[in-house]
Amino acid sequence: VQLQASGGGLVQAGGSLTLSCAVSGSTFRRQTIAWFRQAPGQEREFVAANRGNGGATYYADSVKGRFTISRDNAKNMLYLVMNSLRPEDEAVYYCASSPSIILSSIQMSHMYAYWGQGTLVTVSS
Fold it and tell me: How confident is the model at residue 115 (pLDDT cuts 50, 70, 90)?
């Protein structure tokens, strides 16, 4: 499985940006997919996740109500729509996937088997 993230860029605070992630492989619809981010000098943190096979979606408290994760199983694509961006959202964003993750571990980066290369989001104040 390979993941390719894109869509990062420079945006003003309050603006919007949509990240995309192309995922190879035939098992995409069954995989748990997620977005993580990492700011300079900080640990990688969970942003959002969606469980495969029509499962539920989960968000970090810091992005709830502003970000939306979605998937297109027909196209093997993962998206993150980010609205009302804040300077503290600035980070490298990574897409990730894994065949199966128990709910209690869904926010743990080390549980994900496959990762994209990251795309930089810069938010100007």
Answer: very high
